[in-house]
Amino acid sequence: MTFEKLKPYLYVIFLQFGNAGLVIIAKAALNHGMNHYTFATYRNLIAALVMAPFALFFERKGRPKLTFLIFLKIMLLGFLEPVVDQNLYYAGMKYTTATFAVAMTNIIPALTFLMAWVCRMEKVNIKKVHSIGKIVGTLVTVGGAMIMTVVVGPTIGLPWTKGSTTTHQQQSATHVSPGDNIKGSMMIIAGCLSWSCFYIVQAITLKSYPAELSLTTLICAAGALQGGIVTVIAEKGHNEAWKLQLDAGLVTMVYGGVICSGLGYYLSGIIMKAKGPVFVTAFNPLSMVIVAVLGSFVLAESLNLGRVLGAVVIVMGLYLVIWGKSKDESQPTSKCDPGELPPVNHQQIPMTVTSTTFGKLEMDSVSIAIPPTKVNGK
């Protein structure tokens, strides 16, 4: 039972590790000329091919009927994240930096929370302390991510980063023009908005089509189809963009397809059924912490005080969100409000009638069986 309760937390942390890893290798591949249109198309095609056998085998009997309305929802899902978000996000990353792109994704929890609140998918009662905790926690996680991005502070010397600080600062100091920065920022913001919409629509679709593996396969297939059409239009006459080579681009496509699209959509669907879409996105700022920590080990990048303070704030915000969600789940669903009387149960009272004669006078005695009740604590 304990492991069942831990599953959503383990799954969502795995998702953040997967997303953090993709950001690092995708930026390197984009710098080496990877086309973001073909990347999104091949990524989702690989995900569909990998997930299809599992969907056909494990959900061959329990798969719901695919209606026209569900088909439209799947096509919308395939357009929102696999096409719009992935293309805009990685195009914006080319115009800015990987750190900036990861930082901007931290607006997703706030956007998703607002959408879920409007769609009544998230319980919010401003008179309840735990609901206020969820709102404050969401804002705190976003604020922590902004601290990691804006605040620099003194460098914290770590044994495994000594001697490499200057080199990596020189390598990472890339010139970004103001025009490109604005263009890239707008692309990333639009992609994040599309990503938030994707989570809301996915949660709605799962209610009428509760087959996570099949839904994941269909989303990736729809994304590959629509992404292919977009790529043909955008790269018309540029057939070189479709060629695959054994390089960082191919590794990024396979990794992104299997880990972030295939397993990512599947696990997020499982988490949503148990915790809702806000819980999935609330952990997004954790990817910044993971990138900062892994970057110090793998790339020997130095940590500064701003990143450490931001990480601490993010953890505090996540704690508030988790605490608020746990209080939501512990609220009894059938509890009467104070002062509310329980409904009256109109049942026939069993009666036994006997007859007794005292001389000439015949009297009927009635025995009434009434169960013991507790009224007003007496």
Shape type:
globular
- What's the main sheet like? 2 strands, antiparallel
Oligomeric nature of the chains:
single chain
Mean pLDDT, as a whole number?
78
In percent, how much strand structure appears in the residues? 5-15%
Please give the share of residues in helix: 55-70%
Q: What structural class do the secondary elements suggest?
A: mainly alpha
Radius of gyration: 28 Å
Uncertain regions spanning at least 5 consecutive residues: 164-174, 333-342, 351-366
Question: Counting H and I runs of at least 4 residues, what is the number of helices?
Answer: 13
Q: How many E strands?
A: 4
Give the SSE order as H and E letters.
HHHHHHEHHHHHHEHEE
Strand order, biggest sheet?
Answer: 1-2
Amino-to-carboxy terminus distance:
39 Å
Structural features:
two-stranded antiparallel sheet; 5% strand; mainly alpha; 378 residues; single chain; 13 helices
